[in-house]
Amino acid sequence: MQDPVGKIEEKGPTDLEEQIQALIETNHLHLCVECGKCSAVCPMVDFYGEYVPNRCTRSVVERLRFGTDFKEDEALWFCWACKECTFFCPSGVDFQSFMTGFRLSLVSHGYREQAHFCDVCGAYLMPKKQLECLEATLNDKPNKELLYECPKCKKDKYANVLHGLAGSGRIRARSS
Amino acid sequence: MSDAMRVGVFVCHCGTNIGGIVNVPHVVEYARTLPCVACAEGNLYTCSEDGLSTIANKIRELHLNRVVVASCTPRTHETLFRKNCERAGLNKYLFEFVNLREHCSWVHMDKPEKATLKAMDLVRMGVAKVSLLKAREDLSTAVLQAALILGGGISGLSAALVLANQGYRVELVEKEAELGGLLRFVNRVFPTHQPATELLDPLIDSVLKHPNIQVHLGSEIKTVKGFVGNFKATIDENAEMRDLNVGTIIVAVGAQVHKPEDAFGYGRFENVMTQLDFEGRCGGYDAFNRVVMISCVGARCEERSYCGRFCCIVGLKNAILLKEANPRAHVTILHRDVMAVGKLYEEYYRRALEKGIAFVRFDESQPPQVKGAGTRAEKVQVLDTLMGRQIELDADLVLLTTPLVPAADNGLLSRMMKIPLGMDGFFLEAHQKLRPVEFPADGIFVAGCARYPAEISESIAQALAAAAKAAVPMAMGRVVTDAFVAEIDPALCSACGRCVTVCPFGAVDWSEVGGPDHGKKSVAEVNPAECKGCGLCAASCLSGAIRLSGFTDEQIMAMIGSQR
Amino acid sequence: MTQKAVLVLGGGIAGIQASIDLANMGTRVYLVEKKPSIGGRMAQLDKTFPTNDCAMCILAPKMIECANHENITLLTYSELAEIQGETGRFKARVIKKARFVDEDKCVGCGDCAAKCPTKVVDEFNAGLGQRKAIYKYFPQAVPSTYVIDPDHCRLFQGKKCGVCEKTCKAKAIDYGQKDQEILLEVGAVIMATGFDLYDVSALSEYGWGRLKNVLTAMQFERMICASGPTMGHLKRPSDGKEPKTLAFIQCVGSRDVRHKKYCSAVCCMHATKEAILAHEHYPELSSAIFYMDMRAVGKGFQDYIQRAKTEYAVEYIRARPGRITENEENLNPVIHYEDTNTRELKTREFDMVILSQALMPSETNAAVAEKIGVSLDDCGFVSPSQDLLNPFATTRSGVFACGFCQSPMDVPDSVVRASAAASKAAEALASR
User: Is B356 near chain A, with CB under 8 Å?
Assistant: First the structure.
């Protein structure tokens, strides 16, 4: 359920608005016919315990197409990118990929207040709202540390541990 | 009467439709007790092959000379049972149909005992009447192998060509000075986006060159007389009256585009126009940056309840063309539903979405507002029901998507040829499901927008279908009509004219017969070839001069008079 | 030498109409139908919109006309094996499958089926109800001859039986009957192969096949039909009770890139019709129709929708439901949806849910098209003609297509196009 860590494309439009527009097109958001299936399958209501129309997929797609100040629009940061909507969309809108790209785009342009980052390397992990929910769910459980490091950093950490455990020469150290 | 009357009675269960309410075996037993009944049987489905062969076998075995079938409705099954009798060697007019379904089981579902008694009554009445029926022969009239086609648009042209190619003579009458109809004003056609002229010109060319087709331009139809096989139409061809003798007629007079009087700024703002107005302008699809289209203008409303069927697609077409000419343009379609029905149109809708054309849904109760200054519209405000908020769109072009409405002289043609109009003002076909291009009056057919808004492929389909129907009597060279027709006794006719007015098929007309003192008098006369045996004339006659064979006074009195 | 004869493939309403028109013009017609009876999908419907005519009542006379017309030869339970030639001179080979019942002797009395020990799921009744291994496709079948299903018949499966042969008073049973090869010479061909129903179990979110009280529209038609498996009574499959609330979900499998991308054309209207019929049967019953666009474009269709709203307790909700779950106590289906007009997320329980399933070209259409050399599009429909002026032409000259196999369409449109194809076929024959 975590957004994958990724890099912004080196090439392509540099202006934020153009980037978002390109994401809208690549992910076919303009094919939306507003049927509402995405909102109906979205698990957001279960996560947050309330339904707010502005947060749901269909409403977001609508607003993006007709113009919304996405830099300020807090409602764009509730989605968990779980992919249910993309899976079920009858028109072929890939909302999950859009959301992933959208957040990376905003974050890379300095809009960081809504986002939560890896403690180790600073890569984007998930929306703060998602973090709050997960924190409340995991509460005092030991796995809570999973929320603060990105998969790559965790892998490095465990690799080091394993390396240490391997002792002399039986496991070759990683070259990175 | 040398032969004894031998009546066969066949009572149908019709699955559970009749048998579930009426005690059919009881009715069958009762039928056996009736005078002149030689046999009585029950069938599960009399209309099935075995039901029919049971009747045929009984006719032969028992030398039945009258048959009563007590089942469903003659509307669907009378021809079937009559033909069956004929095949078995019994004159088909010696057959009587009793309706135990619509007249009994279906309307008395909660009273099975009483329904059974009523069924017995109905069967008894049927038996009483059938004995008074006389053998008759069908009427046969010759058919001229020529068709009159009213209207030279895509429908008329298609029908003309396909009939001419089969060797029939075609008279094509068009009131304008040129052929082509509405398509002359259309720029490009969906979904190929080829120019309309690319379709029309070769078609018009083929029609003009065809040796079997006589084209009458600038001609208006003035009168139509006659009946299937023998119509005489008089046309006014450029101030010259001309008679055309044909066997069949196809009405393909088209429709017109609705012009919304002062709605949404139409007529006030120069950049607000209908889709057709827009197509009529020369070029300049790339001259617009902010286009807003409004659907259902004058359709699906209080004034006009129907949907224009393909106007959504016209909107999509122009939207796609505008967007292709100027990819940076914002094109928004304000709609109440997107009627892209089927495969081709759904694909077309998706194509429009892929091009980035935006769709905004509004409700009939809160239509969009077009705002402007001076002679130009500048903005369109609309309550987007799906977003739940009011939006404002800049507009340098506002296109109104309007439906086709009936042509102005439909009423005139309707009265001239006694062909009905529906509540919507379009011509009304004989049966919506199974006879969509035919009129109740034989030999006259309808195709294209004269019947209801239809786009090119639909119009061509209807034109070809009407041509197929027209080809039937012409191919056979004859028409055979039912013998249960009305007959007027000229001696009793008081020439009041009620029957002439009341006949829906135009089958009653004036005729002159010898009057008193070697003079002449006008009386009404029924043309048996056109008469459908509906009985309206007989019911309207105050002089008792009209009798409808198959429903004579004696027969009806016998039905009423028979007592249980 | 032009053969003044036409081969019509498909005995649904389109094939029937084209056959009658051509036959009335004096042309010889061979009507080939793969099922044991003509009638097609229309025979499975209860009533037809917008007139609410009884489907069988308006279809049966046409079926009988086909059977009795001197110019029409009915070849039912038959399939096209091969065709060669060109316009005016086609040679076709048709295989008439063995019914194992003599058509000339069988009177359709049904004694055999009454005694047959084997029950089979009834395809005509959309899986509701059962038929026997020896059966008549439906009560008003044309021809009314019975047929033995060798895949289920005990005798053909190697077990002991022969009950039908013993029972048949007309001595019509013939276990040794063989398939027949029939050679035909025709001048033109009309494809009218119609449609099949999409298997909506592929939309697992709606639970058809899993949730008892979720049915397809065709199952509903069979249920509400007086000659159907429940004699026209609506019964919830889970407990046999009468439903008081119905929900219809539109576009199940249609307008969906995951299933069928096109619109099936008739579902908006048939769902409305079914809701109207249900209310007529049970005045206490109300329905909700979940739709995206209410595509009522034909003559009289808008008025039909209006009447449904004002007189038949039909509510139209603009939403494409996300999923259907089940109330564990009473097995009521529960629909989860967003009402797009009010922007509310809702769950609503109904007694029964009907899915307006997508309709697709019949599964044998591809094989037939290949034999004839007619190209199909990516959805299996006959490729649209490149010439807009000639909408019934196919990629093979002399072969015309009409009805649903071209594009989703309703009965009036199919009937018009069938007559139109007949016109084109007649023209083709006349021109040689």
Answer: yes
